[in-house]
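Objective 1b. Sequence-to-structure analysis of Copper resistance protein D.
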Amino acid sequence: MPQPQWLAAGLRLALYLDLALVFGLPLFCLYALHRDERAGRFARRCRALSLGGAAAGIALSLAALVEMARAMTGASDYAALQGHVLAMIVTGTDFGVAWCVRVAALLLFMLAGMNLRRLHRLRAPCAVLAAYGGVALATLAWSGHGAMHDGAVRYLHLASDVTHLLAAGAWVGALAAFLLLAWPRSTLHGEALALLSRSANGFARIGTGIVALLVITGALNYWLIAGPVMPEFAPMSYGGLLAAKLVLFAAMLGLAAANRFALAPRLAAAARAGDPPAALRAIQALRRSLLLEAGAAALVLALVAVLGMLSPAPG
């Protein structure tokens, strides 16, 4: 791709990662933490990170809007862009409507998070923040292939894209939360160790649902984009990048299975036995696996960012 397209792909990747965390971290606190734990140190860390992510999401959205205006006008210099072009995109395109919804959702996310913290009303913002974050993440569907159809197929594709994005955001958010719990300075304390053990072992059902949604919507999305046709698998082609994405996704499934069936039970056994050295070894092994899985997830999102700008047609 030419350099400007690489910039656009980089912005897409940054938005995917950022908004996945803005949605996924509060969602994790909602389903993994007990009510009293949602006022604890770990929940506050998740909330602070997601609030920072919301602010970054607004900045990235502004940059994406400017880049879209440059691409639509063919301007070689950002200084040549005029205000009416940006206004036209915001008010006259589906991308612009989605952009406005995203920025509004992120502003509401920040207001809700800061006000709830300041007023000490904790105790319930996880669902509210996850809802605002989910809306912001869902708007990215309008910047991909889902917006290329008309009629009923358009709505089916957008619904599938939104579901795919939310499932991916839930997975990325869970990975980030597990890494926060497994980081050295937090796992030396008994409560954090117990929380990591319980949440890692209790993630199986939710993780299975996430994987099922990703597989079903991923297959449907490909069918709606390319139809019953196998793409060419040349390097840097749509098919080649899609194949790389599937290989990385399979690697993530393997790592997740290792976490579920080997590493998390080992940690639970060490925690029950009150064996600190064994618990430390289990945490270190789980942390390494989570880092590998998070790296694979970042690469998958990078490929998705590029694939959303490519056509599956050969040549």
